[in-house]
Amino acid sequence: MNEWMPEGELGGKITDIVEMLKTTGSGDMTITLAGAHAKGLADELSDIDIYMYYESPNSYEVNKQIVGAFADGGEAFITADHTSAEFGGCYIFHYKGTLVEVTTRLYENALKRIRETLAGRFEIIPNNWTINGYYTFTYVSEISYVKPVWDPPRFIENTKKIIYPYSQKLKNSIIEVFGGRMTAPLNNREYDNAVKRGDFFMVNFFVKSVLLNMVQVIFALNNVYFTGDKQITKKLAALPYCPAKLLENIEFLLGTPADCGNLERQRGLLCEIVNELNTKSGVQTAEKPLFAIP
Known about the structure:
The chain is α+β, with helices and mostly antiparallel strands. The protein has two domains: 8-163, Beta Polymerase, domain 2, CATH 3.30.460.10; 168-281, Four Helix Bundle (Hemerythrin (Met), subunit A) (Up-down Bundle).
């Protein structure tokens, strides 16, 4: 069907799923391979992720019957519509023993979300979840990597023309929002007290918060859409720009040293990296850094 379609049994399963999904609506529709299989990161544990866009989906009752009849054991979870939730809708089921997660959108709503995001407006949902891109910005980021397996209206091809070149308004907004979230923990008195007490459990909370938000800033500085990759370290290393101190010390930063000296060293490294990123993004002034490096 397409050059990126997996071969063998997996490709056969995806082909069957696509043929079933074609019957869940009328008018134009776009079906794309997403997730690890689209990113080239799949392994034996990977499920099948699909993003689907509709002009006119069937009713909930009709599609519940269609998807249920196709799924293993007749069991499938189907949302009532494709707009009520921030992510759209979904069909979740198993097919021949493999988990399948189909995220569904309406063309009109997807384009609305994309235009809002390119204008610098997006929601982080839930508020503390940034590792996998699960905020409304994902409507844009998915277009950058999904592989169309059924797209007569050429929706993906045409929408790519909208999202490139990378929006300066979006870039500024990501740096402002995630840059603030990246910097704030380092000024938090509770983080400072946890370091002095050697409370590595509490320190871990602050460190992870800094790192997860830092990733968003780094991708934006490179004008690259963040797609929620599981192998983020490899992706960071492949970017044109990534702070060397982050890549050189990633294991130490992701670890949780149990002594105050290393906790202080860990915080100092984070401060240096964040200062570099703020300087790179133009947030930090030369006269006064946002915070003092310990």
